[in-house]
Design a protein that fits this description.
17 helices; Dipeptide-binding Protein, domain 3; 20 strands; alpha+beta; Dipeptide-binding Protein, domain 1; Peptide/Ni-bd; signal; D-Maltodextrin-Binding Protein, domain 2; seven-stranded mixed sheet; single chain
């Protein structure tokens, strides 16, 4: 397919083989928007075209437009139909059924069927790769009952399974991917067979990715004929391009300082989206003296949370009351939780009780994360008031990830992008041996509560044990949650109709949103 370019795409590529320099005048800035093309700015190329293993934001944005998931989510984080129309558990919770649309096709004309769903989930289960593998541990087997119905047999009742497999698993064409000896290693970097609202037709690495509308897309034909992702070196050049009319939308979430600057621009609209994730500090519980809860509490009382939210985040953040159950999760939030007070004297008292003096620790963080790069020095400086010395280690992304996975740190500063299903998410992050249990928490009572919540088949049933689990996480300072960010996505006022999702990865770049985007007026 790479060599077969529609005439409109070819004309555009020829006319724009050298991108205009951001900051130059652009005739587009004065012209009204049309449904011919929506141009999106990004700061990264696609790294992996295989949606089952993609690992960058641009990977997700592009492949989400090509490969369907069973469900999407609405602005409140609730699951909504996409490829799936209905989903339910059996009364005993040991099986689950999903019914599919019958009007979606792969771009080579073959129908999207239950066999594709079964192949996708079974491949992840067998090859054990990616976050999805850690979310479907209850799965025994998946079977295609009919072309439009899948039955999942579960090893144990798991009320998180349908949410996990529905939202996180991309469905790929069995007849294409099964030819690869290993799906995990399949590059899928040419001749794409896809089934989303747009199909990828041209790649100019380092410059642009061109996608064409799929006119017979089952959920409804997109308004826009063509999506173009343009690659920029950084957010600042994206902002200049947006202001000059060279692009219509910035894909990246804006740093708070940049959002504050754009707020008064009459040509720009800021779409605000509450995060389903959170920013946090985690303390390595397997390292002395961090294995002592009094020391962890001393560190929690040595953080000026309000200053971080108001200064580093420019007010685009909310308190979670030091709880992993954030205000973005109304079905689970615990109003009784209270944020740790910034109290250096209390920190000194707790350290004295623990017999710890001259405490010195190092803190790792991703130096490319603009928010954390702003508040990491604030954590260091507030800790000094409690007599605690924190040495900052701003690391290149790959080194940071490697140290996190190896649990090679004293303090980890980071953020979770989407924590939308507490029974599943807390299992990954805090259960003994959890995939992202960076703090190396080992707590049998916490494990039991998370297991109870995961067996529950409804949020109402899962709420009591998961709230108790969250209280343990709070009281033992297994996680020190700083805030929930209010994301800002910037687009031209010439466009409307976007459907936001509360995730930095999905925002208004999710497939249902871009399929419904249209020129304003």
């Amino acid at each position: 397919m790479r060599g077969v370019i529609l005439l409109t795409a070819l004309a555009i590529a020829t006319a724009a083989c050298a991108p205009s320099v951001p900051g130059q005048s652009s005739s587009q800035s004065a012209a009204p928007a049309t449904a011919d093309r929506l141009t999106i700015g990004t700061t990264a190329d696609v790294v992996n075209y295989n949606p089952l293993v993609g690992n960058s934001r641009t990977d997700s944005w592009v492949t989400n437009l090509m490969y369907p998931h069973l469900t999407q989510m609405d602005e409140a984080g609730k699951r909504v139909p996409y490829l799936a129309t209905e989903w339910s558990y059996s009364d005993d919770g040991k099986s689950a059924t999903v019914k599919l649309r019958d009007d979606m096709k792969w771009s080579d004309g073959k129908p999207v069927t239950a066999e594709d769903v079964v192949f996708s989930v079974t491949t992840v289960q067998k090859e054990k790769f990616g976050v999805v593998a850690g979310l479907i541990t209850a799965l025994d087997k998946a079977e295609a009952v009919s072309p439009t119905e899948v039955e999942f047999s579960l090893k144990r009742p798991d009320g998180t399974f349908l949410d996990n497999v529905g939202f996180w698993l991309p469905v790929v064409p069995k007849h294409v991917f099964e030819k690869a000896p290993s799906v995990q290693k399949f590059a899928n970097d040419a001749n794409w067979v896809s089934a989303g609202p747009f199909k990828l037709t041209k790649v100019e690495r380092g410059q642009r990715y061109i996608m064409q509308r799929v006119d017979d897309f089952g959920p409804g034909r997109p308004t826009v004929k063509e999506i173009v992702f343009r690659v920029f070196p950084d957010v600042n050049t994206e902002v200049l391009a947006l202001r000059n009319g060279e692009i219509d939308l910035i894909g990246n979430v804006l740093p708070p300082a940049t959002a504050a600057e754009l707020k008064s621009d009459p040509k720009v609209k800021l779409q605000q989206i509450p995060s389903l994730g959170w920013a946090h500090l985690q303390y390595n519980t397997k390292r002395k003296p961090l294995d002592d809860v009094r020391v962890r509490k001393a560190l929690a009382h040595a953080v000026d949370y309000e200053a971080i939210r108001n200064i580093a985040l420019k007010g685009y953040a909310k308190s979670t009351n030091s709880s992993v159950l954030t205000p973005s999760l109304p079905d689970y939030v615990d109003p009784s939780s209270q944020e740790y007070a910034f109290d250096p004297e209390q920190s000194k008292k707790l350290l004295a009780e623990a017999g710890v003096s001259n405490l010195g620790l190092s803190m790792i963080y991703d130096q490319a994360d603009p928010n954390i790069a702003r508040w990491a020095p604030m954590v260091r400086d507030s800790a000094k008031k409690a007599g605690i010395t924190i040495t900052l280690q701003g690391l290149e992304r790959n080194t940071y990830v490697d140290k996190s996975l190896k649990r090679d740190f004293d303090i980890y500063a980071g953020s979770w992008a989407v924590m939308d299903n507490p029974p599943a998410n807390l299992g990954l992050a805090f259960k003994t041996g959890g995939f992202i249990n960076y703090a190396q928490v080992t707590d049998s009572k916490l494990d039991d509560l998370i297991d109870q919540a995961q067996r529950a088949l409804s949020p109402a049933e899962a709420k009591p044990p998961i709230q108790e689990a969250a209280r343990i996480i709070h009281d033992q300072v297994y996680d020190n949650v700083l805030y929930v960010e209010t994301f800002n996505i910037a687009h031209s006022t010439k466009w409307t109709g976007f459907k936001p999702m509360p995730s930095e990865l999905l925002s208004i770049l999710n497939p249902l949103s871009l399929a419904s985007a249209k020129p304003a007026g």
